[in-house]
Specification:
Blueprint: H1 4-19, E1 27-35, E2 40-49, E3 52-62
Antiparallel strand pairs: 1-2, 2-3
Length: about 70
């Protein structure tokens, strides 16, 4: 059985893979957020599109299992 550490690494690999994709429009960047102490992992898009502010979570994962 996989360990929580293995699950965390898999989650980070998947988020990094998606972070390499670029939005097709707007001036938007993708930011990864890895908080291993609190077991929170995210991929956010931040920037501007058609004069409007963009700030959204694309992926947000909390509480990876410890058992």
């Amino acid at each position: 059985m996989d360990t929580p550490k293995t699950y965390r690494e898999i989650v980070k690999q998947v988020i990094r893979k998606y972070a390499k994709l670029r939005p097709s429009h707007g001036n938007i960047r993708l930011d990864t957020v890895f908080d291993e102490q609190s077991d929170r992992y995210a991929l956010m898009q931040v920037g501007w599109n058609r004069g409007k502010r963009v700030r959204e979570n694309i992926i947000y994962i909390i509480s990876c299992p410890d058992n």
